[in-house]
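ugh ok fine here u go
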Amino acid sequence: MATPGLLGDTATRDYSHKLSLFNAFAEPELRGLMTGLGLQPGMRVLDAGCGTGEALNWLREAVGPEGAVAGLDLSAPHLAVARSTVDASIKLFAGDLLHTPFPPCSFDLIWCVNTINHLREPLRGLRALITLLRPNGRIALGQSSLVPDMYFAWDARLERLTNEAVRQYYRERYGLDERSLTGVRALVGLLRHAGLEDVRPRTLMIERVSPLSAATEAYLGRAIFRDTWGERLRPYLPADDFGELTRLCDPDDPRYALRRPDFHFLQSFTLCVGAQP
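structure:
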């Protein structure tokens, strides 16, 4: 059996619901970044770590029917969801970044978002992807939250304690220390160490204020407040702070954070693009 990824990923692990919620939440910003890549009709594009496949359809729109789009993901459950949602012309493949089914020089662009941070050897994974690029091809490497997110604009103390509790939970669950994840923030260096040229980062803030759209409330309420936080953080917070966090995350509580008129949320997203020499 293959060794699980840095964050526990295997071919059977399933967090497809969280992926779908994030893609719906961040669609305007992600599609805007795609537009900035200057994709042309006829290009061949790979989404490496395609998850539930929403980005595949957006890429398909950019390259048109004369282009070709493929998706690669380790998780069979994620690919099952993608097959139910992507355009019939899009090819989906099971595999990891180190063992892809593609021949060298297959793609003009590789889109790889919130994936490289799951690898135990991100530089090795990136170099494997580079072999798939055509001459002058590019890799667009994306990562959420290089800057700490803001959830409770009115209570920076509780927000800090909650973020620290999440980090402690992940360190204990996956046997990581803080240095294990420092590569996540070093996208520019990663691309340059891999030999790519003309490396250009762009960081934007995904910003949401009350009243929230249904997609934003679903992502924050389910994927963050319930699935990422919730009961798992009880051991890492003082009882009073955990109680306050629970009330802010409870849709049935009058203090529910997502319905406060002063709710203001920020999450950074960085896309770093490098070109094959």
